[in-house]
Amino acid sequence: MTTTKQWIIASSIILTMAAAPLAYAKPGQKSDDERRGPPPEAFTACENLTQSQACTVNTPHGVLTGTCETARRDETRMVCVPEGHKDRNGPPPRDGEQQDSRPEE
Hints:
There is one protein chain. The protein is α+β, with helices and mostly antiparallel strands. It has a domain at 37-86. Helix content is 21%, strand content 19%. The protein contains two helices and three strands, in the order ααβββ. The longest helix has 17 residues, at 3-19. It starts with a helix and ends in a 23-residue tail after the last strand. The model is unreliable at 88-92 and 97-105 (pLDDT under 50).
């Protein structure tokens, strides 16, 4: 096999591997790395509720339960905050871990 053919085959394999994840992306949908903050469903869950009322959010990973709290970035809206995330400094500590003490934004 010539060097040119090897180069073409290698390039084709690399391009195919690089493009494969794009085939699974939905148009207009942000990846988890791109999205920051609560999903839209968390805001919808609290549209007709008040502060501290129980709420549920249907996610691809199951149903989350929590309470409606004022959104950190938009204090005019309520958002369903999952149980254990009320301190807003990150997720609750795992067994044996110390709580993160970062200041609020």
